[in-house]
Every structure is written in C-alpha cells, then in structure tokens.
Amino acid sequence: MRDNIKGVAFDLDGTLYPNHRLNIRLLPFILTELRLLAAFGKARTIIRKEQKESANSSFPHVDFYTYQAEVTAKLLSVKSEPLKEKIERLIYRGWEPLFKKVKLFKGARELLDDLHKAGFKLGLLSDFPPETKLGHLGIDNCWDSVLCSERCGALKPHSLSFLELAKEMSLPPENILYVGNSYSYDVEGAAAVGMKTAWLKPLPCSGIGKKNPAPDFSFTNYRQLYKFLLL
Asked: How many whole angstroms separate alpha carbon 47 and alpha carbon 84?
C-alpha cells in the first residue's frame, strides 16, 4: 500500500496538535460564551445531518458562513447578520492568537519535513480556517495545498472538500493518505472518496463498529506514523 502513496494530507485540529492544549486556553471564553458555543456546535451538527441526507445531491452552500449563522441564530432566537459577525469575531478570529502558545505533537514537524524531503506532496484540510493557525504553529511553509472545508461549502465528512483536496494536490484520491484524529469526520470522509486513511486513535479507544470501514493504518504517536511511511 505504501508504494501507492504519493501524497499525505492532514487534518489540523486535534491531529497535528493535542486539543487539550487549546481547550485549557479557551476555558475563560467557554465560561463567558457557553450559550453561543452550545448553539454553534448544535448548528454544525444539524448541518452535517443535512449534508448526509443530501449526500448524492449538489449540497454545497454558496456562502456557508451565512447559512451557519442562520441556523445558529434560529437556535438562539436572534438575528443572523449580527450573529454572523459575532461568530467571525469571537470564534474564528478570536481563537487564532491562542495558537501562539500551542505546541505540535512530538514528532509531527520532523515527519512533515522528512515527507517533503522524500518527495511526497503534502496537503492540509481543516473544518476551520487554517492559515493563521499554521503561521502561529510554525508550519505554514510545509504545504503544497491548504484547504478549508467551510470555504468549499460543506463540513467534513462530506466528500466535496476531500475531492477538492485531491484536485488541488494534482493526485488521484487513491494515491493520497489522509491523516486525522476523528474517525467519523476524517477516516470515513476520506475513505468514501477512495483515499487511504491513517487514524490517530484517542486513548483509551473503544474501537469502531463492525459495519464501519477500518482505517488503513492506526497510530497513537507520530513515531509510529513516521515508521509506517518512511522506514
């Protein structure tokens, strides 16, 4: 299988850095804006359900952020336009400076550098806008392609952004290994378009259901993924 891998693509949040390092710094914001965050999370769950139900149709929204604000505003019983600005200011732009103090998983940067040296194409696909985060994390210069699923018009695991990523990387999906920490968003989404998958498993991990596709490779630290790809 490794001989067929020409490109490696990564999720960002929880995959290249541990979520708990960000969540600790988010605690004051979470306590202050708990109602907004709860509605925002529920809205994204609703949108993912809609995506799944329309998987075989032309789902993508021309303006995903406006639609997301409309769904969230309905849950909060407020007007959508001011809420869209608030989400942009507090959640999208407001969280980005926190990444200045967030550290990558041990071995992640070494893997990215050595994959590049070995001639692999590198891609990144995130549900949240990644560019500023990548700069703060010090890995903004590592990529051949960087995409945000929201800008494509649909959240992961919808196939739209995975197919767009393959197009941007100029590789067939079957020649790409997608690395992510979410089984339902990353592994299932990438596998559905024919990509190989590597799952950064949570510890402890209860495993996956019998009806779910098994990832091509599972790992708990980046040294294991390094060995799988490069040794």
From this structure: 16
Where a domain ends, among 56, 84, 99?
99
C-alpha to C-alpha distance for 54 and 191, rounded to whole angstroms = 18
**Domain range enclosing 84:** 21-99
Please tell me the pTM assigned to this model: 0.93
Sheet of strand 217-219, all strands in order from the earlier edge strand to the far edge:
145-148, 121-126, 7-10, 176-180, 196-200, 217-219
| Closest listed residue to residue 1, CA positions, set 215, 196, 213 | 196
> Is there a single domain that holds both residue 12 and residue 43?
no
Closest Cα to residue 161, out of 44, 63, 60? 60
Are 28 and 94 found together in one domain?
yes
Q: Count each helix (H run) and each strand (E run) in the chain, helices first.
A: 11, 6
pLDDT for 177-190, tens place per residue?
A: 999 999 999 999 99
d(CA 193, CA 32): 40
